[in-house]
Specification:
This protein is mainly beta and about 280 residues long. It contains one helix and 21 strands. Strands 5, 6, 10, 11, 16, 17, 18, 20 and 21 form a nine-stranded mixed sheet that branches. The chain has a four-stranded antiparallel sheet with strand order 9-8-12-13, with no helix packed on it. It has a three-stranded antiparallel sheet with strand order 2-1-7, with no helix packed on it.
């Protein structure tokens, strides 16, 4: 089965640039070439016989709302990149910690906005989505913010005198608890579509200075660089890290492409998770 899904931009509030995966994903589950003992066998798979799947994209942040949730459907591989919006869905978000229940309003086809929910660190949130005869649920906890000190730069000299610049993130990881991070890099206001997702398995309690390696050099001397840190739960890290493996975004592509891990029930694709977000800016110099 070979399908395409669209992971679009999710915005919390109106004044913040929030992280998003803003590109079409081709999830490869097509014909395979098997080589064994010098013999080749081609297995043909019907690329246009897959039932559409629901794709959910939703975030809760510790910044002012409203927060948005986008619902769409997958399309077959040979179809145009027109990802059908799911309209008329019943979308509820509950703050399990304080009992607030929010019924999201559809603002444009497939895009649903919160009205009452506030993103508070330490609070747990639940999504309840019903469309047609199907119901989907997801739970997520909004962590405490992790101090994000600064953005600095690493410069590497190449033969011929060329200098490559990379952003370096500096923060203190809290000790004794599992922490998961996702970073978004913008250069002169333009988002760089590389996936940066990290866990603290080897850096628990340490001061971290980590270079954001990209597949190409995007930063030049004098550029304005913005980095957004999202401190999230394990479900967010699993989505971003497996998305990285599936797409080969910034690295070698996974040998066995599959869908990124979703925390939404009933085999829905996509994600619903909460993040403590912070932004730091610097000029390359």
């Amino acid at each position: 089965m070979k399908q395409k899904i669209f992971i679009g931009k999710i915005i919390a509030g109106t004044s913040n640039i929030q992280p998003a995966i803003n590109l079409s994903i081709s999830l490869l589950m097509s014909a395979f070439l098997i080589v064994l003992g010098g013999c080749k066998k081609v297995i043909d798979v019907n690329l246009n016989d897959a039932s559409p799947q629901i794709v959910v994209e939703g975030n809760i942040y510790n910044t002012a709302g409203p927060y948005t949730l986008r619902i769409s459907k997958t399309v077959n591989y040979s179809a145009d990149n027109q990802f059908p919006a799911v309209t008329g869905a019943s979308v509820l978000v509950k703050d399990i910690t304080d009992g607030t229940l929010d019924t999201l309003k559809e603002s444009i086809p497939g895009l649903y906005l919160t009205k009452k929910i506030k993103g508070v660190s330490g609070h747990e949130y639940q999504l309840l989505l019903t469309t047609g005869a199907q119901t989907y649920t997801a739970n997520t906890l909004l962590p405490q913010p992790v101090p994000f000190d600064s953005v600095s730069f690493e410069k590497l000299s190449r033969p011929g005198g060329k200098i490559d610049w990379y952003a370096v993130i500096n923060y203190q990881d809290p000790a004794g608890v599992s922490n998961y991070y996702q970073f978004t890099l913008l250069v002169n206001g333009r988002k760089i579509n590389n996936t940066f997702a990290f866990e603290d398995r080897l850096s628990d309690g340490k001061y971290v200075s980590r270079t954001l390696r990209t597949d190409s050099t995007y930063i030049s001397l004098g550029d304005s660089v913005t980095v957004i840190m999202n401190h999230m739960g394990k479900e967010g890290y699993q989505f971003y890290s497996t998305y990285f493996q599936v797409t080969g975004n910034g690295s070698l592509q996974s040998i066995s492409p599959a869908n990124p891990i979703s925390n939404i029930s009933n085999k829905a694709l996509g994600y619903f998770f909460a993040s403590a977000t912070q932004t730091r800016k610097a000029v390359a110099k």
